[in-house]
Amino acid sequence: MSKPKLSQLNPMDFTKMTPVRQAKIDAAPDTPVRELSSYVPNQIAAALHPGTQYLKVSKVVERTPDTKSYYLVPDEEKGTKSLAWFSAGQYLSVALEIGQMKLTRPYSLASSPKEALDGHYMLTVKRVEGGIASQFILDNWKEGTAVTASEPLGTFTYEPLRDAKTVIAVAGGSGITPFRSLAKAIADGDEDASMVLLYGSRTVKDAIFDEEFKALEAACPRFKYINVLSDEEKDGCEKGFITADLIKKYAPDGDYSVFLCGPQAMYRFVDKEIEKLGIRKKFVRHELFGEYFNPASEADYPANVADRFNITVISGDAKTTVIGTPDESILRTLEKNGIAAPAHCRSGECGWCHSYLASGNVYVPKSVDGRRAADLQYGYIHPCCSFPISDLVIEVPPMKM
User: Fold this and answer.
1) What is the C-alpha to C-alpha distance for residues 168 and 257, in angstroms, rounded to an integer?
2) For residue range 113-135, what is the model confidence (pLDDT) as tens digits?
3) What's the mean per-residue pLDDT of the chain?
4) In this predicted model, what pLDDT tens digit does every residue of 7-36 receive, in sequence order?
5) CB 3.0 to 4.6 Å from 201: which of 3, 206, 237, 244, for a disulfide?
6) In the chain, what is the greatest distance between 2 CA atoms, to the nearest angstrom?
7) This prediction's pTM
């Protein structure tokens, strides 16, 4: 039977369906509709994506003189009964109140997905010079401290359809945390991959989780651990920096992926080294490195920018004007002035701080501009990676976790 042509269809034929539908409605049982939360798919979705998680610190472990690990468990009294599952490489966005400031900070989950099922997360925080959040956490969080966090977020995860079977993990400083999660996931059998971890530190004492990685390497044939020390020579360690030659030394024949997590300076150096390897772009992955701090160093940064601007912020019914500077992101300026604004990644990728630029001009470094084409066309920005270069009027949605 041939399909009728569009010109042969009579729109009035659809009206004949009305009595049929009404008859089925009349024949349906007169019972209350079930709560949407009672359906299993909705229960699974709520468990995986709770939006907000209420946690508390169950244990604190000092890793180095300036680094601590915080074990987080559900705060059942506040309604969180279990932890949301995650993929190795994801992060939590943690809500903080520091004086008049209400802000969030992303911290990679250093624990494995299996450990979340066993009832705890682990975040490892390293003190950063001038870092408001890291200093506050290290000086104030202790056993019993209440913590409000997001569900697990981020895309720095292993994907077998995209990534090669072997991952060369390049870490610097506290950028080691997502790789601890991935290494343990590989050892647990939750990820079907092999990993070679090149960990750049000044000295062995600065290498977080050093003994743990050595034990994991001995127990798991799919994991190899190499310390790369810039300021110290040590048996069994590489000396210097993570270069193309060093990556080639430990890389397998054939395809491999390179995952990077560390400070901006490491990214700038290692990215140039990776270009020498001729690796396909899809095999090079970067974790978010947090806020961009030096926009004036970019080649396309405009000349003759003033040193301060008025930033008028509209959030709900409130309207406030604060002073901003061109070297500080709009998000950081808002937070310093006690204006609560939504944020998660603080790197221009997640879009959680998506706001409308009603008037004025901003500078956004191309390397962190994750806006969609429609955002560019209709005047939306990500305040976490946007810097004022004129007076601004910006509409910011209320903060939410």
Assistant:
1) 6
2) 999 999 999 999 999 888 889 99
3) 92
4) 566 777 777 788 888 998 889 888 888 899
5) 206
6) 85
7) 0.85
